Amino acid sequence: MTVTAFRPRPEPAEVARVTATAAELLEVLWGRASTAPASASQLRVLLILEHQEGINLRTLAQSLASTPPSTSRLCDRLEAAGFVRRVMSPDDRREVRLHLSSRGRAFLADLRTRREGTLESVLDLMPAAKRTALLEGLEAFCDAAAAQIHDEAQGPGSRTA
After folding, report:
1. pTM metric for this prediction
2. Average pLDDT of 51-79?
3. What is the CA radius of gyration of the chain?
4. Of 16, 59, 71, 124, whose CB has the highest number of CB atoms within 10 Å?
């Protein structure tokens, strides 16, 4: 499935198709590394909290494109598992801030270790030059995706040339 073998400069649609296939295969591989005891939805919450420590329930619900009651139930289960702490906001006693617990952080660290091990076993099967090309491409992809996410967060018309 080498795209560059027949087109040296593939179009974004072709790259998107191959990237989507790679993402699906990653899901299968990562499924082997199991996220238990957290569901996929709960894992999304943990990852959001890791990057937005201390956000409130409404902001978390918006990030998940969910309702506050559903998000609250997700957080209830994560709190019961010891992965999340709810803390009263010092500014507004009606607002609750969400934080990862040390157990939640340890769970994410362990999950990443297992996932990386699974990926290493696949990457080990690739020639070194292809791994280098993949790394360069993924770094460029991450830069572009981060810039797009940042621009979207800034609102319309925020992109500068």
Report:
1. 0.75
2. 93
3. 19
4. 71
